[in-house]
Design goal:
The protein is mostly helical. The protein has a single domain, classed as Up-down Bundle (Growth Hormone, Chain: A). The chain has 19 helices and no strands. The longest helix is centred in the middle third of the chain and has 34 residues. It is globular.
Length: 398
């Protein structure tokens, strides 16, 4: 999952090297989101995970993503300065996203084959791994790579090193998946993607509430992951603090969500999915409202961002678990695909909106707008909790 934000983490260097605008920088992440949607939908329609070995799909897609991402490292120094060159970079990022659609959803399916009880915790652990992997490029940027690359790699700038290491880690993951990952004993019966179920996902009240809760969560999540590290960098630089410290804070802000996912998974299986998601949304929405106003207080901003990072993804796995429990068992794959595609499409809007709002009204407004997502999600998860169907979740724990 290091591939996901491998370009986003080095945006200051790419902006300087290629002369990119904030809007163009946003597309470094948006293109991955769009690729992921395309890949997830194509995989579901073609029923790839039932036609082929899931561990091999995971391995091949991780290797493919590593290759597409590494290809950007091989581009000429001024490649991204031209419209045609930047379009090629966007295509490679989109192809990387398509490949990641064979890693993350496939991993969730594999995890589910090993667990019936405690599935919320199990999937929470997996999403925690996704979170740490997504954060890892920010950790790499905190190391003195400029010195290393100039001494050891000649003309290779540090941003290429970050993307190359991310690609290498995905290659290593492909080897692990191919050799060590297996399918569990609880493999569900193969099902075909059913377009006719698309409407039912949005018309059945319980499913609609769960999906709306997920959309509120996704409205905030990826925009926060993409831009909170940039806010921290701006705050630290303004205060005269080191850029390396800012990048470590950015890594911690995203990475701490891994612990949030595990804790939320543990709690949700015992206390209930709706309570867990509502609590996470309240905390993350509150942080969104105040984070941007702390630009001139880097220490306090870091503390708020750590709380925000812990809460913003903690509930993520629980929305998927809720859908799998609420929908017709014959169409779990279809329901999860529709939920995922809708959520990731929504992220493209907020990822692009944050820099535009920041340029016009500042960081406070740019992040405060994200609180609308949690507010929307809280309303619908509270409504879901009051419904009879909610007893299907987490063994009766609403």
């Amino acid at each position: 999952m290091a591939l996901w934000f491998s370009a986003t983490a080095v945006t200051p260097a790419l902006k300087s090297s290629w002369g990119l605008s904030d809007g163009a920088v946003a597309w470094l992440t948006i293109s991955v989101q769009l690729g992921f949607v395309i890949g997830a939908l194509a995989s579901a329609v073609l029923n790839l995970s039932d036609r082929f070995s899931a561990p091999w799909i995971m391995a091949c897609c991780a290797l493919g993503g590593a290759g597409f991402n590494f290809a950007i490292c091989l581009a000429p120094p001024d490649f991204g300065q031209s419209a045609a060159g930047f379009a090629v970079v966007m295509l490679l990022r989109m192809l990387t996203g398509i490949m990641l659609a064979g890693v993350y959803p496939t991993g969730m399916k594999l995890m589910a084959t090993w667990f019936i009880r405690g599935r919320g915790l199990a999937i929470g652990v997996l999403v925690g791994a996704l979170t740490l992997g997504s954060a890892s490029p920010h950790l790499l940027t905190a190391f003195p790579l400029e010195m290393f690359s100039s001494q050891q790699l000649g003309s290779w700038p540090a941003w290429r090193v970050v993307m190359a290491v991310a690609s290498a880690s995905a290659g290593a993951a492909a080897i692990i998946a191919a050799i060590f990952v297996g399918t569990g004993p609880h493999l569900p019966v193969a099902t075909q993607f059913d377009w006719s179920y698309f409407a039912r996902v949005w018309t059945e009240p319980a499913l609609r509430r769960a999906n709306f809760g997920y959309l509120g969560h996704m409205f905030e999540l990826y925009a926060m992951w993409a831009w909170a590290p940039q806010l921290l960098l701006a705050s630290f630089e303004q205060a005269g603090w080191s850029a390396a410290s800012a990048r470590l804070a950015g890594f911690a802000t995203v990475g701490i969500g891994g612990a949030g996912c595990v804790l939320a998974g543990f709690i949700a299986d015992r206390v209930g999915r709706t309570w867990t998601t509502i609590a996470s949304l309240i905390i993350s929405g509150g942080c969104a409202l105040i984070a941007g106003s702390l630009l001139h207080q880097p220490a306090l901003l870091t503390a708020v961002c750590l709380v925000w990072g812990f809460a913003v993804v903690a509930d993520s796995a629980q929305f998927s678990a809720a859908i799998s429990e609420l929908c017709d068992p014959r169409f779990v794959g279809t329901a999860l695909t529709i939920q995922t595609c809708a959520g990731f499409l929504l992220t493209t809007l907020t990822i692009r909106a944050v820099p535009a709002i920041q340029a016009a009204w500042g960081w406070h407004a740019a992040f405060a707008i994200l609180a609308l997502g949690p507010l929307f999600g809280i309303y619908h998860m509270a409504k879901l909790r009051s419904m009879r169907e909610a007893s299907k979740m987490a063994g009766g724990n609403k």
